[in-house]
């Protein structure tokens, strides 16, 4: 008989062997397929990184060209999807909308549900990489009352994303290199992070051989929470609240340390990084650059920096090794780009998409067994049924 050990939050439980992402939390190292995150963020395109995550190596020119074309060919949605988007109330949270739409794609693409061969996997992968950015753009445009348009997939993947999100009716689309470059960087920084909550969800849902889109939809739901991807929205709301409260960072530091107060300093702390989050370093620098380049003065950037300084010098945070994480500064950049706060976690999902796909594909190719943790039962022992009138 095997002995069951309980590990709440799976803090010390490995769920798989993986060749995708390497992470050293003590040293603050993050590499995708061996490529350091710093090099990728500076030099790669998001589509190249997606290819590397999913297939193992950075693509050659020909491989990238084919990949891009295959994605482009799959980027049109069934017109009935438009009706679904239109049926959502404008007030709906975009994460609820995008997870439903991703799930709805299984209905419009039944051939992508039962994927067993590598060839079928490839078809499902390019489909979702083509359609998901359109869903993201439509989710935002629906909220803003803008027409649900397509972009131009002859453009770069990220530039097209920008066009689909921001193109105004009756106006010539003019790209913005600063925004496109910053978006490219942010998406790369979010592209994978080994066995985090949403990725584990994708792998475990997919381990029952549920289709790719259904597994991704499960992952999107897991990402939504404020302890995970939802933190980027929560950070901005927290910084706004501090600003409205006269910029009193000390008050919020005290709240975060108070064990009777459920408030946490959002964008701080990480399950694995106990020294610094390498993504946060890159994002902090990018926030300065982007705001400067766009000529945006956002007072909450100063509040964020002040909060960071205080936390880095406070024994509570130092002792618990709590540092700013990837979400601490990303929202400030998204806002400077003109992306609404409620869309921030959807942007995270867009970035994480290739990581989820890569992890799902690896899990299926490795023929991993169905994910099925055990438990230790602590409920009532056996007792007899009692008629309802005698209870
Ligand atoms: N503010 C105040 N105290 C904190 C914070 C925080 N942000 N994070 C952790 N702590 C304290 C926690 O109360 C505990 O204290 P004690 O030992 O006295 O009980 C100690 O630090 C360890 O925390 P934990 O909750 O056991 O750590 P965890 O590994 O289970 O949680 C975390 C990690 C990221 C969920 C957590 O740090 C947190 O809630 N942070 C705020 C939300 C956030 O920014 N999430 C984004 C994470 S990075 C991107 C992503 O994954 O999507």
From TrEMBL:
Q: Could you tell me what reaction this enzyme catalyses? A: oxaloacetate + acetyl-CoA + H2O = citrate + CoA + H(+)
Is Transferase given among the entry's keywords?
yes
Is Transferase a UniProt keyword of this protein?
A: yes
Pathway participation: Carbohydrate metabolism; tricarboxylic acid cycle; isocitrate from oxaloacetate: step 1/2
Which PROSITE patterns did the record assign? CITRATE_SYNTHASE (PS00480)
Q: Which InterPro entries match?
A: Citrate_synth-like_lrg_a-sub, Citrate_synth-like_sm_a-sub, Citrate_synthase, Citrate_synthase_AS, Citrate_synthase_bac-typ, Citrate_synthase_sf, Citrate_synthase_typ-I
Q: Which family does it belong to?
A: Belongs to the citrate synthase family.
For this protein, the record's PANTHER family field holds: CITRATE SYNTHASE
Per its record, how is this protein called by name?
A: Citrate synthase
Q: Which organism is it from?
A: Polaribacter vadi
The organism's taxonomic lineage, starting at the top: Bacteria, Pseudomonadati, Bacteroidota, Flavobacteriia, Flavobacteriales
